Amino acid sequence: MMTEALEAIPFECFWGAAAAVVALLLFLFRKHSLPWRFRARVTYVCDGDSIWVKTWYGRRVKLRLLGIDAPETEQAFGGMSQIILARMIEGRRIDVAAVDRDIYGRYVSALLCDGEDVCLRMIERGAAWPYFHYFNRMPRDVAQTYRHAYEVARRDRVGLWQEDNPEAPWNWRKRHRLWWTRFVFWLKRVLGLC
């Protein structure tokens, strides 16, 4: 009886259904092409330049803020940088524009919260350095705005600029990175994993 019912269905329908299932699976498990724009809710602020968000469809994504480098948590002003970012965006809805992925798998992203550039606010408050490494992935006027905000914050001794000579996070990481951490990053690059 069942075989008669199956024989009555044209063979092409099976291929159509199979193609639809495959297309749906590819859509659900695809790697997003960049730039990737979406709205999300901030669920956790890891430090002054990394956050976890939850997308509208429930996916958790880790983001690295584009154009800034905040002090590490163990570094002077690192905890304060995290608190400043958390007060600004934690639990709130943000607009995300992911432009790249870093070696840790985080999406390097520009963020807007209530129409304001979150990264620019971090620089203005002296909670982060502009991360010149990523300036080539930003519009020229945005990069110039970041650079100007950095110069003003430094001149006015705002936030971390209250210290005479604060150590940049990239220099701090170099001094504190262990040899095996460097080896793991080198191995990932050689194997093409990042």
From TrEMBL:
It holds the Pfam family SNase. One of its GO terms (molecular function) is endonuclease activity. The chain crosses the membrane at residues 6-29. Keywords: Endonuclease, Hydrolase, Membrane, Nuclease, Transmembrane, Transmembrane helix. Signal peptide: none annotated. Residues 36-163 form the TNase-like domain. The keyword Transmembrane applies. InterPro entries: SNase_OB-fold_sf, Staphylococal_nuclease_OB-fold. This is Thermonuclease family protein.
